[in-house]
Design brief:
The complex is a heterodimer of chains A (347) and B (153).
Chain A lengths: L1 H13 L4 H11 L8 E2 L5 E14 L5 E14 L4 E11 L14 E13 L5 E8 L30 E13 L2 E10 L13 E12 L4 E12 L2 E17 L2 E14 L2 E18 L2 E12 L4 E15 L2 E11 L8 E9 L1
Antiparallel strand pairs in A: 1-2, 2-3, 2-17, 3-4, 4-5, 5-6, 6-7, 7-8, 8-9, 9-10, 10-11, 11-12, 12-13, 13-14, 14-15, 15-16, 16-17
Chain B lengths: L1 H15 L13 E5 L10 H8 L13 E4 L5 H11 L7 H9 L6 E2 L3 H10 L3 E6 L8 E6 L8
Parallel strand pairs in B: 2-3, 2-4
Antiparallel strand pairs in B: 1-4, 1-5
Classes of the chains: A mainly beta (347), B alpha/beta (153).
């Protein structure tokens, strides 16, 4: 199908005779820009991705530079209601090490996303496969070039697995005069090619609603009930709130989440936390970023607090250079405290 | 009466140098245009904004909308962006970066208003925008937006 599509596309470009075909061809050919992917003619396929390299000098680890992600997107869509999307990510093993102090450099080719959509309408799309867990805002756009800091807030990766393999219905509809997005999902199957070190869902169901309050302000609410492979009998429940405000380069965002769990009916392992982050334009394409975050684990008598201060330079829409200093107390293994810098490119 | 009309048209050609009946009304502003039957003739400005942001993708009859843009530096694109979204094209880059991560691309870009008219006229589901003074009978107008730009013709 891919070959046929490409051949069809080549034919279309080569033998375009009328002005409209030429317009289409011009539109297709001129559409490649860094950060917008490459459309394979009129085949319906687009290929793109991002990469990120990082240098860290943190308290509990040796200073080092590494390629943290090389991620490739491939998706297909045409004028039909079907859409296919995939993301393969060559990431540092034990993603774990995404923030971490691991020694040795092993990499793993993980399937981040692999799903098929069928849209009945804008209100109702059915998705089957592996997709990002729709909790909060950060996890849904966690790619390095898209976020303001190299480090990731603890609550966005310590309370639930990043990905889920199952079924989801999603869509958007007018609500209170704005276009709200929703997602409802469930899983009771094995995760598709999970990176080593991750503890994927054993089963899960949940939902998310994102509601714009104005042109500049959005609120989200998430709920997730789940168990994980390591302890399938431990049922966990997570509730989360998030918001995003943006205006003329200024941005304030935040997320909060509460998770409890019960094993044989006994309350256990409650965790809660949140972060709030501000971004201000400093000069041209240089932005200042500040974030405070916390994660409480009463059972372990831990109350982790982190403060992040950083710079983000975006010379183009696709490139991001970051430098940040992280200060923290009661930080667990895996939470970097010190200097982090990175360069990331969306291609 | 018919001969009077012809005389008036000839007089207009002599005085203005162009056939006055050859194009639509010379109105100021921006017209959001579509091809004939494939798109409902009534879409609100909010719906059109969501179509251009690729949030609304399917029409009521299940056809895919195909919004088309002018280049980001084009004065009409900048005016349209401010009128529809309250932001210039550069301020929407964060939005499109996030959408790209989910496999959603911004509308195709065509290089000229004439190219937009040709594309829209011949593509089911296509929606574009051009200076109102350029609109002719190849396309129909969904809404008109105010604009301080001069007619490019």
């Amino acid at each position: 199908m891919l070959l046929a599509g490409i051949l069809g596309s080549v034919g279309n470009h080569a033998f375009a005779t009328d002005e409209t075909s030429q317009d289409r061809a011009e539109a297709s050919e001129s559409s490649y820009e860094l950060g917008k992917g490459y459309r394979l003619g009129d085949s319906g396929f687009t290929i793109g991705g991002y990469s990120a390299a990082q240098y860290q000098n943190t308290r509990d680890a040796e200073s080092r530079a590494s390629l943290t992600h090389l991620s490739v997107f491939l998706w297909w869509e045409n004028d039909s209601r079907l859409k296919f999307f995939s993301e393969l990510d060559r990431e540092r093993e034990a993603t774990a090490a995404r923030n971490s102090s691991g020694t040795g450099e092993k990499h793993f080719l993980a399937v981040e996303r692999f799903y098929l959509d069928y849209s009945f309408s804008d209100l109702l799309t059915v998705r089957g496969g592996k997709f990002l867990t729709p909790v909060g805002r950060w996890n849904l756009i966690h790619a390095d070039p898209l976020v303001w800091t190299t480090s990731r807030p603890l609550i966005t990766h310590q309370l639930y697995p990043d990905n889920i393999t199952g079924l989801m219905i999603l869509g958007n509809a007018p609500m209170f005069g704005r276009q709200a997005d929703y997602a409802l999902y469930a899983s009771s199957t094995h995760d598709l090619r999970t990176a080593p070190g991750n503890d994927p869902f054993d089963h899960a169901y949940g939902g998310r609603l994102n509601l714009p309050a104005s042109e500049n302000l959005e609120f989200g609410v998430s709920y997730l009930s789940f168990s994980q492979h390591a302890e399938p009998n431990e049922h966990k429940h997570l509730a989360g709130l998030d918001f995003l405000w943006q205006l003329h380069g200024y941005e304030v965002s935040g997320e909060a989440a509460y998770r409890n769990s019960s094993e044989r009916g006994e309350p256990d392992d409650r965790r809660s936390g949140g972060f709030i982050q501000g971004v201000i334009p400093l000069s041209g394409k240089l932005f200042g970023v500040a974030r405070i975050e916390s994660l409480s684990e009463p059972v372990l008598n831990k109350d982790i607090r982190l403060q992040v201060l950083g710079l983000n330079y975006r010379p183009s829409r696709a490139v991001s250079l970051k430098l940040e200093f992280i200060h923290g107390s009661e930080t667990p293994t895996g939470a970097p405290v010190g200097f982090l810098s990175s360069v990331s490119v969306l291609f | 009466m018919r001969s009077l009309s012809i005389y008036l048209r000839l007089l207009a050609v002599l005085l203005l140098g162009v056939p006055a009946w050859a194009a639509g009304p010379k109105e100021p502003g921006i017209s959001v245009i579509t091809s004939s039957a494939s798109v409902p003739t009534k879409l609100s400005p909010d719906e059109i904004a969501l179509i251009f942001k690729r949030k609304i993708r399917l029409s009521a009859d299940g056809r895919q909308y195909q919004p088309v843009n002018l280049p980001a530096s084009h004065p009409l694109r900048r005016m349209f962006s401010l009128r529809m979204f309250g932001h210039n094209p550069e301020e929407l880059e964060d939005y499109w970066r996030d959408m790209y991560f989910h496999g959603v691309l911004p509308p195709f870009v065509l290089v000229s208003e004439e190219a937009v008219i040709r594309f829209v006229a011949s593509t089911p589901g296509a929606i574009g925008y051009v200076s109102s003074c350029l609109v002719d009978n190849r396309v129909s107008v969904l809404i008109r937006l105010e604009s301080s730009l001069d007619c490019p013709r």
